[in-house]
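Case study 2.
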Amino acid sequence: MRLFRNAAVGITLALLAFALSFAIVAYGPRRYVVVQNHYAEQALWNGDKLFLTVRSGGFAHSEFKAGNGTRDISAAEFAALRALDPTPHPRRDPVRLALRLAYSFIYLLIPFAPLLVSLISILGLKTKLLANLPEHASFSNVLPQQFTALDRNQLNRLTQALENLGFKRAIDYTMVSDMAVPIPAFGRLLVNGRSNCFAEINQVFPPRKKPTELACSFTTSYENGWVVSTGTRKPNGGSWIMRLPQSVWRCKPGLDPERLFRAHQQQGSELASDLGIRVLPVSTASDYFPGVQSRMQQRRAVVQTKPVPMILFEYYSFALRPRLEWKGDWPKAAAKRTSFSTQAAQA
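Prediction:
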């Protein structure tokens, strides 16, 4: 959100700077030099010579200026000069105008350099997203003691709550990938063979940042590639950009594991009923990680195919209106199935 605010302010100030620079150069006061106690009433250019009608003491008279010198001219002479060019505004050298505009623009933008840096970083958002989506990853056994910042007390509380729901520990793991800047993370995977559901407790430790809050989530896989996930950690703009059409998710911040599990089962039952699909059986961690790797590759493909303007639009659209649920193609697939069933019944 801070990046969004900096970018918005930077873009706004840059546009204001450009507008002000253009106004100063194109419409600002001209440096007409006339005799003391006189001011210009009309200006007329003929080549590089400036002719002014000036007013002094309430009386108008014509005056000629060339270089630093001035002299009075008669009304007839002024009228003759006016006939050569009736347009009452100065002729400008386009090259000089462009240079002055550039100088003013650069001068006014110097104070806003940090905001422009933020804008440049925004344009590199796609590269950052791809950098956090490794092409290859493996999952290795770890011990909680290896992560000094891990919230061990909350880990034990969540583990006990999940075991009370019938889940059994499968593995404590971390992801090993080919990312340029690896992000340490701890995950504890539990499985419930009766409900065919996985539960995961995880915490991420970004470099030079505070660790994320330890969070709990549930995942169930269904036929035809459908997946339902329910968790307590709020999504961000990056996860919204990488959403998949058959990966349904819902965020329920603040729910305890028992109520979160019930909400997860309810949504899974609704999906299965609407689409006429069955849950896939699971029993060990080996049933979990292939799906994780597959979805990781799908998300990477989604980011690669999206143009930068679309990525920026979705990112800031989410920042302005965060979502806690994504149903993907579920409504469309359900409507298509209903329509097909109706047509079959009528036939």
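The longest helix spans residues 2-27.
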